[in-house]
Amino acid sequence: MDGLIHPALLYLLLALGGIGVAIALPRPKFSPQILGALIAVGAFGGLFLILGLKASERGELPNFNFYIFAIIALGSALRVITHPRPVYSALYFIMTILSSSALYLIAGAEFMAFALIIIYAGAILITYLFVIMLASQSPSEQEPGTLSAYDAFAREPVWASAAGFALLALLTTMMFRGLPEMGPRNQFDSDALLAQLPGKVDTALSMEGLRGFELTETREGVSAVDPAHQQVLVMVTDVAAFNGSLEHSERVAVLFEPGARAVAVGDVAWAALPEGLGVDNIENVGWELIAGHPMALELAGIILLMAMLGAVVLARKQIELGEDEKAQQVINLGGGS
Amino acid sequence: MFESMPALLGAGSADVLPTTVGPGWLWLVPILALAGCVACGLCLAMRVRTKAPAWIVVGLLGIAFVLTFMGYSGWDSASAQVVKVFEWIGLSWGDSAGQSLSFNFGFYMDGLSWLWMLFVTGLGTLIALYASEYMQGDKGYARFFAGFALFVFSMACLVMADNLVLLYLGWEGVGLCSYLLIGYFYKKPSAVAAAKKAFIVNRIGDLGLALGLFLTFVTFGTVQYDELFALIDQGVAGDMARTPLSEMWQTWAIPLLLMVGAFGKSAQLPLYVWLPDAMEGPTPVSALIHAATMVTAGVYLVARFFPLFAFEGVPHYALWTVGWVGALTALFSSTIAMAQFDIKRIMAYSTISQLGYMFAGLGVLSTVGAASHVFTHAFFKALLFLACGAVMHGFAGQLDLRKLSGLWSVPGWRIVCVTMLIGCMNLAGVPLITAGYWSKDMIMAEAFVTPGGQIIGWILLLTAGLTAYYTFRVFFRVFVGPVSFEPGDEHHDDEHGHDNGHGGGGGFHPHAPGWAVNTVLAVLALSSFAAIGLYFTDKPNGGFVGNLVGDSTAGYVTPYGHHGADDGHDDAHAAAEGDVRFVLVADPPAHASGDATGGDHGADGTPDAAHASSGGLILGMDPHKAMYYISAVVGLIGILIAAVLHGPLGMGGLGLGTRTEAARSKADELLPALGPVARWAQHKWYVDEFYDFLLRTPLRVLSHVFHAIDKLLVDGLVNGLGLLPRAMGSALRPSQSGVLQGYAAGMAGGLVLLLVIVLIFM
Amino acid sequence: MHLLADSMVMGQVTLAHYLLLSAGLFAIGMIGFLTRRNLIIMFLCTEMMFQAAGLALIAFSRYHMNHTGEVFVIFVLTIAAAEAALALALVVLCFKRRESLDASAWSELRG
User: Fold this and answer.
1) Which residues fall within 8 angstroms of residue B620, CB to CB, at 6 or more apart?
2) pLDDT by residue for chain A (337 residues), tens digit each?
3) In B, which residues are within 8 Å of A81 by CB distance?
4) C111 CA to chain A: closest CA distance, Å?
5) Do B441 and B366 contact (CB within 8 A), yes or no?
6) Given B741, B745, B755, which is nearest A170 (Cβ)?
7) In chain A, helix, strand, coil percent, each to 5?
8) C12 touches chain B (CB under 8 A)
């Protein structure tokens, strides 16, 4: 496992987490949910702590915010499955979403972070809330605040937790075993990146208000030449090679300072992105989406359309209830007034 | 064993007809018939209730006949016309010869094809016209005519084919149409059984034909007639080495196989049993398919491959068999016909008998005689059937000759009676004025002339007498005498609205035939006379038919020249003398060595000697000449006996309509004297029962055995295997709890399992 | 905007953090799906498993310096939205029939 974490420790902590979750799941009578949640979150926290220590050894420590949001996400996820009231579950799930979107931001996926909030928290979860309210049994007069039987206690919490954490153990084992075998992270397909470069350069230039450039693909990358001013922008895939060849090229320096102004797509691509001129995340995603996966995009549209039609059909369905059931519903609905 | 095998004077140098390209529009002839079938199918689909299908078919077949006649007129009789419509199959799997199979959808039109096509399309048109009235009011009107047209198409393919495969297609096609039309009244169990019987019995014959086809291809490397007959003419097989045919066993085996096919289709012993039952079909079908055309396909096949049947240098097992089987069939079925009471069945047995004549004719090398008899028989037998059909139609399905009498005096039936009389005279062979007399005569004379054929000749002669007797038995019983009839129990024509007038025709009014039936009967009656005229057009060569046969592959071997039954035999003799090479004996090595043994009569010496030693002279006259008188006398004697036992002479009176109960009893008186023979004949010599015992009973026992094996062993195995999943299912059924999470847990467990496997083994 | 991103170096250890979190979310979602009886909560748990997958995709996207992973998250969202629309409509229908959101109320649907 390449020393990321000791297997015994990993399994111990996971077993602890499983016990915690099992305790935290709702039970009909005595249910020390807080204790279970604490145990579970503590187990996860321990895992992250060990990983963080290892990361600081290697100088690959993630942003501190990561730990905060990771714990929030896990904690609220636990609450989602342990809270006996569905409305709270949904609200906790929104919290999970929010912390997830923060983690997206940390990973540099700004567009997806906000899209997640808008779509999930804003649309889907609100739908859930509506349905929860629509489909919940109204509390009876005699025992206000009681739960439905199916919300009050979990089904086979011990076995389910055991299965879940066994799966988690296997997944993490796989992951940690597989990570060292993964190729170097910058071993990306430079050809594919090069293919995207013209679009990126064009976007970058137009955002700067620079127009009329002729784009040509060169060996190092893409050069943009303004015929009037003889200005050149070069985007390269290999900064070192680019810097080496720079002295022989006077035109490159006209507009962009070496290293600072050149958009180098490679080792330090994100760090070297010039402020204001860089291609931001949303454009990248857009480019990837439209240029890379047009077919999938169309299919996604069709799926959404079909889902819409299906929802319409289902929603139009009339349920014929018997007289007794109707009477029961009237009593249920009018009970409070 | 083969001592009495007919000797053969092979005209080895006889030339194969050169081929020329025929008129391209000839394909219209079969296609018109097919179009008729399709049109009737459309009528069937659109539920047309009118007579439109009949008129479509009559019209199209009429056009086909006219086209055939035009083609025949434009035919240069010195050559065979070959018409290629399209290449049907072209396969090759090697470089050397014989490793390719290619043939056309094409036609080979020589005299034989023209002869058959002329009467197939001509009779087809006439009988379709007849059926337009006969089948009126039937629910399956369009279905009937669809099958009818399809039959004509298939028959045209069979006859016009320029290769064996197309012939086979037509062969099976006519078999199918026969099956469909026999089983036309498919709600009648007897009709269905008859159709099945016809189909299955024909399968046996078709197996022979198929094997013959395969063997032909293997031997000659081709199935195209022109190439095939050229090879046979050269006497070599189609392989690279050009092996002489006289050294190959295939040369006599192919004809034997083809012969089996011919026996099946043409209802010869022992495969004749289907034809009498085939009378369950509508009468026009019986007339066209089971009397005039389809059943002569076997004769056509043998005639077409006559060069191979009569190939010199190999023993002629097939030809010998054909002759003897034909003669025996003729005798056998005529004895059955004598004892039957159903007039349509009598006609059926007479058809078998006459087909026997044709095969005997082929066996004694008289292709001209056989073809002539096919031609004349087609007309008069169709006539007889159609007349019987008219009677049956008019008397509500009554066919028992004991229950019908004196139709001559019933108003509206005169044309039927007259035409029936003409048909009977033809069948009985009334001398001089009937075509049947001349063609039958030709065969019998030839039998006596051919070395080794005398016994066949005597058998045929006896049969001629019997034929005359049973034919006029029908006529005298049904058409002459006091008027008395009982209607049958078939009321397929409700418009007559008669009651079941049993016990005399009290409330029953026979439904006299209409104009179409009468017209067709009259035309056919006239045609049967016209056939005599055609016969005399060119006497030395056997007339019209003789010319046609002479200009075909069947004319390849003309041992005694193209002689007819007239005194042209002298010329024929003279012509034959030059051609005679050898006389066939049973033992191939004997004549392979060149000196046939003297012990075999006719095996040595000149043809004259052969002729003489084979008892050529009858009554001190040449057989040809003598046969005129002998067969005429025999025929007349047969008629006379019929008249005494069943007809006016029995009463002593000569006038028509004077037959009485006395005459009837006269015939019946004789029955006890015959002992069980009459009963046996009436029961068709128990052949069906014999076949039942011989074939069906063992098969049934066998099927029970296999059924038991199937039940116990195979089913046991399969059911045992079936228990396995059932046991597994009942073991796993509890997991199908309906609880959603149970299934999810299953999925999770599967994922866990998968990951464990990956972790451990990868 | 780049504040968070700039300070992060996505090494293998960092990726491990993300993946651990993702796996944890997935496991919790699965446990929830297996234990809770309320149909709506069960669907919420499937959404949580979607979230876990999305998080892993984002992490890998960052790790590999391309945007394919992010694009796939869009598709995940699409499927989640479609599923929510249909599943919730079905849940409402089921509730109208049985007056209960218990998944085992429909256990007679077994084959």
Assistant:
1) none
2) 456 778 888 889 999 998 888 888 887 776 788 888 888 889 999 988 888 888 777 777 777 888 899 999 999 999 898 888 888 899 999 999 999 999 998 888 888 999 999 998 888 999 899 888 887 765 554 555 666 777 777 778 888 888 889 889 988 888 887 776 665 544 444 445 555 555 666 665 565 555 666 666 555 455 655 555 554 555 554 444 444 443 333 223 223 333 333 443 333 232 333 444 445 677 778 888 888 889 999 999 999 999 999 988 887 767 666 777 667 666 666 544 4
3) none
4) 22
5) no
6) B755
7) 65, 5, 30
8) no
Q: Are B132 and B274 in contact, with CB atoms under 8 Å apart? A: no
B598 or B42: which leads in pLDDT: B42
The pair of structure tokens assigned to B470 is: 């049973």
Among candidates C20, C9, C26, which has minimal Cα distance to C63? C9
Contact B632, B437 (CB under 8 A): yes
Average pLDDT score over chain B: 79
User: Least CB-CB distance to B748: which of A155, A163, A174?
Assistant: A163
Q: Which residues of C19-39 are buried (b: 16+ CB within 10 A; e: fewer)?
A: bbbbbbbbbbbbbbbbbbbbb
Closest CA to B360 of B330, B381, B315: B330
Instruction: Report the distance separating Cα B365 and Cα B302, nearest Å.
Output: 11
In contact, B131 and B144? CB cutoff 8 Å: yes
Query: What's the ipTM?
Result: 0.90
Q: Could you give the C-alpha distances from B729 to A210, B724, B726, B735, B748, in angstroms and in order?
A: 73, 9, 5, 10, 22
What is the pairing mode between strands A263-264 and A231-236?
parallel
Quick one: which of A166, A160, A167, A169 has its CA closest to A9? A169
Residue pLDDT, tens place only, A6-29: 888 888 999 999 888 888 888 777
CB pairs under 8 A between A and B: 25
Nearest to A167 among B741, B752, B759 (CB): B752
- The domains found in chain C, sorted by start residue, are 2-104 (1.10.287.3510)
Average pLDDT over residues B59-66: 93
> Burial code of B627-654, b = ≥16 C-beta within 10 A, e = fewer?
bbebbbebbbebbebbbbbbbbbbbeee
And the tokens for B557? Answer: 């071997």
Run of H or E residues at A263: strand A263-264
> Between these two residues, B362 and B603, which has the higher pLDDT value?
B362
How are the residues of chain B apportioned to helix, strand and coil, as percentages rounded to the nearest 5? 70, 5, 25
Residues B56 and B33: beta-carbon distance below 8 Å: no
Structure-token pair, residue A241: 């090679």
Global pTM? 0.59
A175/B contact by beta carbon, under 8 A: no
Asked if C104 lies within 8 A of B736 by C-beta distance, the reply is no
- What is the spatial distance between Cα A258 and Cα A252, in angstroms, rounded to a whole number? 8
- Residue B433 to residues A225, B425, B430, Cα–Cα distance (Å): 115, 9, 7
Residue B734 has pLDDT above 90, yes or no: no
Q: In whole angstroms, what separates CA C61 from the centre of its chain?
A: 18
pLDDT tens per residue across span A282-296? 777 888 888 888 999
What does the DSSP assignment read for A221-257?
EEEEEETTTTEEEEEES-HHHHHHHHTT-TGGGGTS-
pLDDT at A213: 62
The DSSP letter of residue B92 is: E
% of chain B surpassing 70 pLDDT: 81
